[in-house]
Design a protein that fits this description.
With about 425 residues, the protein is α/β, with parallel strands linked by helices. About 50% of the residues lie in helices and about 10% in strands. It has a four-stranded parallel β-sheet, sandwiched between helices. The chain binds iron/sulfur cluster (SF4).
Length: about 425
Amino acid sequence: MAAEQQPQRKKIEATGQMLKIMSDYFYDLNDAADSTTRKVAWCTSVGPAELLRAMGFAVHFPENHAAMLGATRMATDLIPEANTIGYSPDICSYLTADIGAYLKEVSPLAKAYPGIEAPPRPDVLVYNTNQCRDVQDWFSWYAKEFQVPCVGITSPKNFTDVSDILVDDVTRQIEALIPTLEEISGQKLDLLRLRETVSLSRECTELWRQVLETAAAAPAPLSFFDGTIHMGPAVVLRGTRQAVDYYRQLLGELKQRIADGVGAVDGEKHRIYWEGMPVWGRLRQHSELFAGLQASVLVSTYCSSWIFPDFDANQPIRSMAKAYLSLFIVRSDEYKEKYIKGMLEKFQIDGIIYHDAKTCPCNSNSRYGMPQRLEQQTGIPSLVISGDLNDLRCVSDEQTRTNVEAFIEQLEERK
Ligand code: SF4
């Protein structure tokens, strides 16, 4: 049996600054909802946030709110509320938890940020189905509820190469959103402002990439579990100066950790890749479980999904289309396998954990033979753990622990 140790949690000093900018962001959203001049847009995580920001909208990301419901372990009790109005327990538990929270009139924002009771009321909802169809259903429900427009991009899926034809299609779809958004915001799109926003998104994404790539060092200074927390600004503040400044600070701290030989996990012996969504309500437990086995879960598809190298201020709309199409989740298994193989090599990975999330088939890549194919090609073993991003009724802590311990033991035997 792999020897389990008492893990030491290492604080990232930049966390204080991250909490501050996230707090400023939520208070600003709240102010925008109260204002008579500012408009609020709800946007999917890889929707056209750059366009919305450049048009002066305050931008709320329901997936971020849903992840907060998961991390605060409020989600599981709220999901049945959405089930009662017809949304199945088998569909996205971000959707069901978020709608459940709305129906119950509760929000983790109320506890974290005194004075804020709930997410801001939208003036428009803007989706991109690049990740899944659930976002469109989710946003359409709110659009009916609030009697506001819901517009979006219907993305192609399962392709290997991002061809010009696909980019043309999504570019046209983004352009088609502009008149509606101009009417709602009461402002004409300022191309200069859009270029600046895209440029800031590009800077943010580049720094976030460098932050994640510090984990290629041995020992890795950053874990996947740290990454899920520190990706907050990359998700909700893409296209702003605050996010760029924050990742500069975080990167400096992680480089210092590398220089000092400080790892996120003491005595790092095994280097693990995480494929799939986090289990938000079990971040701490999973972090401690792996750290206790001297296994560093140091890189993931999930955190790396907010790296968009295609943003280009010279071609703002077309480059947005290309960036949103290049997302891992939209691609074919052929592309995904090649991508993961590159990551295994770059980060010197010993083993892969696939999280099979019950309610998110799009982010669960263990269902069509990928673990077996990759193991055959790379010789790197893997373990599939069953669970869910938000619905803790789908999570068996005992089974996860037993399976992870056995897997790490298997890795130990191979060394
Ligand atoms: S990708 Fe998964 S978690 Fe995200 S919105 Fe779609 S179903 Fe929900």
